[in-house]
Amino acid sequence: MCTLEKRGNLFLLTLTGDNEHRFNPDAIATILSLLGQAKSQAKRGSVLITTGHGKFFSNGFDLAWAQASGSLTGAAERLHQMVESFKPVVGALLDLPMPTIAALNGHAAAAGLMLALSHDYIFMRKDRGVLYMSEVDIGLSMPDYFAAMVRSKIGTSAARREVLLSGKKIRGEEAVALGIVDSAAHDSAEGVVEATVGLAEKLAAKKWNGDVYASIRKSLYPELCEILGLKATIFATPKL
Amino acid sequence: MCTLEKRGDLFLLTLTGDDEHRFHPDTISSVLSLLEQAKSQSTRGSVLITTAHGKFFSNGFDLAWAQAAGSQTGAVNRMHQMVESFKPVIAALFDLPMPTIAALNGHAAASGLMFALSHDYVFMRNDRGVLYMSEVDLGLPLPDYFAAMFAAKIGTSIAKRELLLSGKKIKGEEAVALGIVDSAAHDSVEGVVEATVSLGESLAAKKWNGEVYASIRKSLYPGLCAMLSLTAKIAASP
Fold it and tell me: What sections of the sequence does the record tag as coiled-coil (chain B) (predicted)?
């Protein structure tokens, strides 16, 4: 389902298997646990790269699991359960004491796009893969922390509208133009991963204090952090 | 250390001397005092241009003075003192009843960059000088009003990340592309100052009511103003 490997300074979190990597309670719990592991092993120079196998980075929550409850109320409850349990995953990423990079191998939709946006840097493919917030098409309103993430991370009103209110499937070049991702320069998953490893090695070489890095990161997104129950200030001994 | 001159409608605030123009308690009081002077002498059409001499606009707080305290606690106290006393300087700029322009002669780092960003317009050189938020490299978290400034003044998440989480030294062209500064078109200090004087003169010609200008400016940054204890509303007779 997902794995955490260590390669020198880099933590590589991979959503494995050639499927849609949908977030059901088990997947969510596993990811949260692996992020906890990365946090506990973090030191100066650590960097996280998150990627997936196959056509999808992640296609969002497991709506089929929600519907399998057999009733409308049951489905709503299961969806609510996934929305609530995914919030700590986003919180864990914003809190992670190291730079974070999402290397999108393929499509990122709804909660899958939220996972990507929770990273400091996003690289996607040029040739394949779209970003898609499906909520407006499915008729689902936005969880509070999803909206806060989009408000925090997507700068212009026009870009926010394109992402949330158009039902558009946004490809690499447009995602860069809208300021949503950092790069869509590579025509293969390997190219994207290689580029993210290159960036990660440069960031790792800075040997930053991870707690300070996380503190500065959180101070950039006070509204989102409040919704996620994260505190931004820490007392650090500076390198004066 | 710093001077305030008047040239017609323009107030010119200059950080003098060919050094790093670090903000130390004495410099901070001088700058605050000169800003208050500009405020008291302001009339319709007044404009402030802030610049400096030498290679640096300002390289931030005087960390050497903090360390000279002789102990870790002493150093932290001195840092805290500078962070707290600098807040009114930022507030004074946001409150200033006239348009403000920063003409960066050189490098602006940490609180030096905060000082620049507190102006309505920022011009820098194309050929020399970088913007640098050193905190991530020094291992210092951001004071609350610094974070609020960046949230207010820097629009995209990518620009915020590049400035605060990459330890990057950002040159003129990139600073314009990231939307942090207005211009990096000139290859000399004289060019930058000339351009800012020219902008200053076209703003001065509008003969705006400075109180109203300041009120509108503050209303753009409610979060930051709340943190700086600035109130945005005034009653003006239009």
Answer: none
Summarize the confidence of residues B107-117 as an average pLDDT: 97
Sequence-ordered strand ranges (E) for A126-221:
130-132, 170-171, 183-186
How many degrees, rounded to 5, is the angle at CA A238 between CA A233 and CA B1? 105
Q: Is B232 contained in some domain?
A: no
Give chain B's end-to-end CA distance (angstroms, integer): 40
Q: Which residues of A touch B72 (CB under 8 A)?
A: 237
Q: Tell me the torsion sign for CA atoms A94, A96, A98, A99.
A: negative
Taking only the tens place, the pLDDT of each residue in A59-108 is 999 999 999 999 999 999 999 999 999 999 999 999 999 999 999 999 99
Count of the separate structural domains present in chain B: 1
The CATH number given to whatever domain includes residue B119 is 3.90.226.10
Question: What's the gap in Å between the CA of A198 and the closest CA on chain B?
Answer: 14
Reported ipTM: the value is: 0.75
**Percent of chain A having pLDDT more than 70?**
96
How does pLDDT run across B54-93, given as a tens digit for each residue?
A: 999 999 999 999 999 999 999 999 999 999 999 999 999 9
Asked, for residue B234, whether it belongs to a domain, the answer is: no
Q: What is the pLDDT of residue B238?
A: 55
**Domain hosting residue B23, numbered range:** 2-227
Contact B151 A206 (CB under 8 A): no
Are B67 and A240 a contacting pair at CB < 8 A? yes
**Which residue(s) pair with B54 in the sheet?**
none
B235 in a domain, yes or no? no
Residues 68-127 of B with CB under 8 A from A: 72, 75, 79
Strand partners, A23: A61
